[in-house]
Amino acid sequence: MLPAVMPTYNRLDLSFTHGKGAYLYATDGRRYLDFASGIAVNSLGHCHPHLVKALKDQAEKLWHTSNLYRVPEQEKLAKRLVDSTFADTVFFGNSGAEAMECAIKVARKYQSAKGHPEKARIIAVEGAFHGRTLTTLAAAGNKKYLDGFGPVAGGFDHVPFGNMNELRNAITPETGAIIVEPVQGEGGIRPASLDYLRQLRAVADEYDLLLVFDEVQCGVGRTGKLFAHEWAGVTPDVMAVAKGIGGGFPMGACLANEKAAAAMTYGTHGSTFGGNPLAMAVGNAVMDVVSDPAFLAQVDKVARDYWVKLEKLVARNPAVFEQVRGAGLMLGLKCVLPNGDVQTAFRNEGLLIVGAAENVVRILPPLNISATEVDESIQMMETAAQKLVS
Ligand SMILES: *Cc1c(COP(=O)(O)O)cnc(C)c1O
Q1: Are 215 and 254 in contact (CB under 8 A)?
Q2: Are 298 and 349 within 8 A, CB to CB?
Q3: Mean pLDDT in runs of 10 for the chain (390 residues)?
Q4: Would you state the pLDDT for residue 42?
Q5: Pocket flag, ligand 1, residue 104 (CB < 6 Å)
Q6: Residue 113 has what pLDDT?
Q7: Radius of gyration of the chain measured on its C-alpha atoms
Q8: Contact at 8 Å (CB) between 160 and 215?
Q9: Which of 18, 129, 360, 367 is the most exposed, having the fewest neighbouring CB atoms within 10 Å of its CB?
Q10: Which atom of ligand 1 is nearest to the CA of 39?
């Protein structure tokens, strides 16, 4: 019989009663160190007091009014995002895929308003993930996810990630934009080289293409900068943000500069829920913490120490792990053994992580983890690795 919940996920038989900081408490009484963070969503861990307070305070005042009216909390968060990034304007939605849908619409509208409606094609890269709506699936071009869902939304061309020659060759008079994740998440924790990001900016300028970065997973402090592209010293024209920005409350945002968004006028886009007071209260609370330069410096420091320890772990266990990859606290271990087995072994020791493509396990801890929690995770990985080969 079909389960009441549509069985689209391969769920573990594991559920939780509560969480605190980096720890999750399971219904069977076990405690887990949660370095999956709800897939890079619980950016400040579970039940961060500042976020809980913001949510509770707002819950007693006002939840939702719709975008028929001004939403002061939304204006506040938009202003903060604008002040701390390349962007001049922000559209709020409820998820990463919606943020990407908005980014794609902004890119096409820009070209169309400039008198180039034919420039609706977008170059994306292999190994990308942009969400599960029909258009974001077409953008990523992953055949496995598109299979059976009818005609693939048109307008996307794909080139290998990191290859500038092929990207240049793919540009036609119909190309209007480029979409790239500065650090691929689902694709296996693959950071773009900083030089690649700079060259993308240059080629976009050369052909008047909009440069769109999908920072749904790598943004909001995850790499030790507020946004990952800051490491390269270049800015996109449009950026999709979600996951960590809500700290666990569903929200997404599409940020754009003035040039890109000039044609996004009244009536061009909308969302019933997007940017409602409850979501915005939490988003503002997340920003209170993560936009602090001292907080970001701490993320960077913890991440660098973690990297060194992971390198040693890999060196000690060459039959299990092959390589450390990533940026900041968006880390991956490329495995020798099947990543599913590694994930299970970690979990048996009490550590939760996430799988990814290329036989990688993703380590996406809360951004405010302590050195002690890092050490605890390394110890669990070590024990798991030893058990896997014994
Ligand atoms: C998770 C993710 C998305 C999709 O976000 P949803 O909230 O699941 O719609 C898009 N892009 C990237 C890079 C992601 O990691």
Answers
A1: no
A2: no
A3: 95 97 97 98 98 98 98 98 98 98 98 98 98 98 96 98 98 98 98 98 98 98 98 98 98 98 98 98 98 98 98 98 98 98 98 98 98 98 97
A4: 98
A5: no
A6: 98
A7: 21
A8: no
A9: 18
A10: 1
Integer CA distances (angstroms), 293 to 105, 189, 287, 296, in order: 33, 25, 11, 5
Q: Check if the beta carbon of residue 329 is closer than 8 Å to that of residue 42.
A: no
pTM over 0.90: yes
Of 9, 41, 100, 179, which is best to mutate to test ligand 1, by the most ligand atoms within 8 angstroms of its C-beta? Answer: 100
Annotated binding site: 96-97, 129, 132, 214-217, 271-272
Q: How far is the CA of 217 from the centre of ligand 1 (A)?
A: 7
Asked whether the beta carbons of 377 and 365 are under 8 A apart, the reply is: yes
The amino acid sitting at 173 is P
pLDDT at position 18: 98
Does any ligand 1 atom lie closer than 6 A to the CB of residue 142? no
Structural domains of the chain, with CATH: 16-46+293-389 (3.90.1150.10), 50-290 (3.40.640.10)
CB atoms within 10 A of CB 181: 28
pLDDT for residue 292: 98
Structure tokens at 193: 């080289």
Q: Is the distance from CB of 186 to CB of 129 less than 8 angstroms? A: yes
Binding residues for pyridoxal 5'-phosphate: 96-97, 129, 214-217, 272
Counting ligand 1 atoms within 8 A of each CB, the residue from 9, 39, 130 with the most, and so the one to mutate, is 130
CB neighbours of residue 295 within 10 Å: 18
Ligand 1 pocket, residue 185 CB under 6 Å? yes
Q: Is the distance from the beta carbon of residue 362 to the nearest atom of ligand 1 less than 6 Å?
A: no
Tokens at residue 317, please? 């266990």
Closest residue (by CA) to atom 10 of ligand 1?
Answer: 130
What is d(CA 307, CA 301) in angstroms, rounded to the nearest whole number? 10
208 CB-near residues (< 8 Å, 6+ apart): none
